[in-house]
Design a protein that fits this description.
Elements (H helix, E strand, L loop, with lengths): L2 E7 L9 E7 L2 E7 L17 H5 L9 E3 L8 E3 L2 H18 L4 E5 L12 H9 L3 E3 L5 H11 L15 E5 L3 H4 L1 H12 L3 E5 L5 H4 L3 E3 L6 H14 L5 H7 E2 L1 H9 L3 H8 L3 H16 L4 E5 L9 H15 L8 E3 L10 H5 L11 E3 L3 H5 L13 E5 L3 H4 L3 H8 L5 E6 L11 E4 L8 E3 L6 E5 L12 H12 L10 H5 L15 H7 L1 E3 L19 E2 L3 H5 L19 H6 L2 E4 L15 H7 L3 E4 L1 H5 L8 E6 L2 E9 L7 E3 L36 E6 L5
Parallel strand pairs: 6-15, 7-14, 8-9, 8-12, 9-10, 11-21, 12-13, 15-16, 16-17, 22-26, 23-25
Antiparallel strand pairs: 1-2, 2-3, 4-5, 4-17, 18-19, 19-20, 22-27, 23-26, 24-25, 24-27
The structure holds ligand MGD (2 copies), iron/sulfur cluster (SF4) and molybdenum atom (MO).
Molybdenum atom binds next to loops.
Amino acid sequence: MTTKTIRAACPHDCPDTCAMLVTVENGVATKVRGDPEHPTTAGVLCTKVARYTERTYHADRLLHPMRRVGAKGEGRFERISWEEALDTIAARLKEITARAPEAILPYNYAGTMGLVQGESMSARFFHRLGASRLDRTICASAGAAGITYTLGGKVGMDVEQFQDAQVILIWGGNPIASNVHFWMRAQEAKRRGAILVAIDPYRSLTAEKCQIHIAPLPGTDAALALAMMHILIRDDLLDHDYIARHTLGFDELKVRAMEWPPQRAAEICGVPVEQIEQLAQLYGGTARTGQPVAIRLNYGLQRVRGGGMAVRNISCLPALVGAWRHPAGGVQLSASDSFPKNTQALQRPDLLPGKLPRLVNMSTIGDDLLRPASPEFGPQIEAVIVYNANPVAVAPESPKVAQGFAREDLFTVVLEHFQTDTADYADILLPATTQLEHADVHGAYGHLYMLANNPAIEPLGESKPNTDIFRLLAARMGFDDDCFNETDDEIAAQAFNRADPRAAHFDWEELKRNGWRKLAIANAPFANGNFATPSGKCEFYCARMLAEGLDPLPSYIPPYESAASNPELARRYPLAMISPPARNFLNSTFVNVQSLRSTEGEPHLDMHPQDAAVRGIADGDRVRIHNDRGAFTARARVTDHARPGLVVGLSIWWKKLASDGKNANELTSQRLTDMGRAPTFYDVLVEVEKAGREA
Ligand SMILES: Nc1nc2c(c(=O)[nH]1)N[C@H]1C(S)=C(S)[C@@H](COP(=O)(O)OP(=O)(O)OC[C@H]3O[C@@H](n4cnc5c(=O)[nH]c(N)nc54)[C@H](O)[C@@H]3O)O[C@H]1N2
Ligand SMILES: Nc1nc2c(c(=O)[nH]1)N[C@H]1C(S)=C(S)[C@@H](COP(=O)(O)OP(=O)(O)OC[C@H]3O[C@@H](n4cnc5c(=O)[nH]c(N)nc54)[C@H](O)[C@@H]3O)O[C@H]1N2
Ligand code: SF4
Ligand SMILES: [Mo]
C-alpha cells in the first residue's frame, strides 16, 4: 500500500482558508486534517470540511456530462459525451455571439475561492467572447465600499493579533459558525482577561459565549456607531494626537456626532440607552488606558439598505480612540485587499472588446432574467453559464429567480459537483472536479497567508476542472490567443504580483512544496496613518462619497422594511427576518451531505416567546412564514435567542431538500444597498402563522 500526504487548502468561502493535509492511500483520499504548523489553522478544520472526503466521494457526485430531458427545474437528465456537450454549447454560443454577445452571461461566485478554478480561464473566455460582465455583489460589496471610502481598502488588523486585545467587539458576525479560527484567538484573549462583546440582533452561538451581548434591530448598527462617536467625543475619550495626524474631517464629524445623543440611537436600535453608554465607555475607556481595543466586523450587518454606511461608521471608531497604534487594535472586516493579486495576468481584462460590455448585477438575477430587450438594459439574456454558484437557492427573491431560469428560450449551462437547485434548470450539466482533484492557489480574507492546493487524487469519473472546461470551449469557439493554452500550473505561478513588496517572495514552486507563506506586512499597519485613501488618512469626511451622491459624513440610513421606515408594511408584516449562515452548511454547500444535514435537522425558525404566544405558536409547531414576495415553512423554535420582533431562519437550505421545496430566499427582496449595489437579505419584514396539519 502507498500512503502519501498532500498539502492542500480549503477552497470554501470562509475567512479562515485553512491549510489542509490530505492523506491518500492507494490513490484514494482517506482523510483531510488541518495543518498543525500553519499558525491560523493550528491543526483544526471545522466540522464541515473535516467531512470533505464524504463530500468528494458522495454517491450523488456528477461524474459525466448530461443533457436535460425533463422540463426545466424537474431535474431529469441523460448522459452524453463530452464531445456532444461541448459541441452543443459552442454551437449555441456562436449563434448568439454573432448577433449579440452581451446576451450571454456568466454567473459565478465563490463556490471555490481558488484564484485558478475560481476565476481565471473562465474570465479570459468571457472577456474574449464579449459577454456581459457580472457585477459580483452578492456577499460583500456594500461593506467593501464602506470600508474603502474610510480606510482605503479591505485591509485592517491581522487575525493573529486578536488574542492580545483587551476588548473585542464582535460586530455582525457569528465566528463560532463562520470564522472559527478567529474565535480561537478571541477565546484566548478572554482567557487573558479580555471582554468580548457581541453586537447582533440574534443571540447566536457566539453571542451566548461573550460577556456582553447587545441586540439592536437589524439594519440599525449605523445609528449605534454614531451614538458611540457621540459619547467618545462628549466624554473626551479621544486620541487627539492620532486624530490630528492621521484623520480627515474631525470637525465636521463632531458636528454630525453631536446630532446623535445615545437616546436617539437607543430608540432606533431598540436597545436600552445604558447599554450604549456602557459600550462606548468600555471601548473608549479601555483605549484611554493605552490598551488595545479591537473590532471584528463581519458581513452580517451589511445585508441591509444602509449596510455600506454602517460599515463605514464602525470603521471610523478605531481612529477616534487611536486603536490603530497597537497591533492588537483596530478593525478587521476582510483582509482580501492585502493580497496583491495579479488580476491582469489571471483574468486578462485586456481581452475585452473595445466597447466595455454591460454589467449585470448578480443580486438582481431574478428580475434581469425576466427583462426583455430595451435601450437601457440592452439585449435580453439568452444564455447563462453558471459555475461556482447556486443562484436558484442563494439569490434573493427566489420565486423570480426560478421563474427566470425556467424560461424555455433561455440556454443554461451549469458546471457543478452535484445536482443543485440550479442544476435542475440546466440544459447541459457538466461535472466539475473538487479541491482534492485539481490544483489551485489561494489568498484569504481572514488571514495573511498565500496557500497552495496540490491535487491529491485523479478526477472522479469524467469530471474536469473549470479551467479545462473553459479551455476546451475556447478551442471550439476558435479562440487562439496563447493564454488559452496555459496550464493551471502556469496560471497559478502568476497569481500574485511580485513587484509588490508584500508578495515579492511569492514563488509557486516553493509554495507547492511548503503549502503556505505569509505576506510581508507590518504589524500595526496604520500606527502611523498611511491609509490607502486619496488623502492617506482615515477619512471621516469623504469627498469621493459626496461626488458619488452620498452623504460624505457618517450617517444613518434606515432599513427599507421596518416598523419605523414603513409602518404600513409593518402592520401587515410586523416581524423582521434574518437568515444568516447555519453552522453545518457553507452557504448552500454541504446541505446534501447527510451527516451535516442531520445535525441541522430541518429548516427552523427561531422566534421570541412573546411573538410566538400572540400567534398561538408553540415550540415545535410547523409555521408558515410569508410576505408579498412569497412563503416557506419551517419548524418553530420558541426561544429568547431571537429578540422580540425578530425571526431567524438559519440558512441556506437547498430548496429541494426542504419539505416544501422552498427556503428563506422566497421572501428576500432584490432591493440593493446604499453603496456597492449589494443585496439586502436581512432587510425583510414577514408574518408568521401556524401552518396547517403536519405534512
Ligand atoms: N458555517 C458557515 N460559515 C460560513 C458561511 C456559512 O454559510 N456557514 N458563510 C461564509 C460567508 S459566504 C461569509 S460572507 C462569511 C460571513 O458571513 P456572515 O453573513 O457575516 O455570517 P456570520 O458570521 O454568521 O454572521 C452573521 C451574524 O450577523 C447577524 N446579523 C444579521 N443582521 C444583522 C444586523 O443588522 N446587525 C448586526 N449587528 N448583526 C446582524 C446574524 O444574526 C449573524 O449572527 O461567513 C462564511 N462562513
Ligand atoms: N437568505 C440568504 N441568502 C444568502 C445569504 C444569506 O446569509 N441568507 N448569504 C449570501 C452570501 S454571503 C453568499 S457569499 C452567497 C453564496 O452563494 P454561492 O456562491 O452560490 O455559494 P454556494 O451556495 O455555496 O454555492 C457554491 C456552489 O459552487 C459549487 N462549487 C464549488 N467548487 C466548485 C468548483 O471547483 N467548480 C464548480 N464548477 N463548482 C464548484 C458547489 O458545489 C456549490 O453548489 O449566498 C448569499 N445568499
Ligand atoms: S470552511 Fe473555513 S474553517 Fe472550515 S476548513 Fe474551510 S477555511 Fe477552515
Ligand atoms: Mo458571503
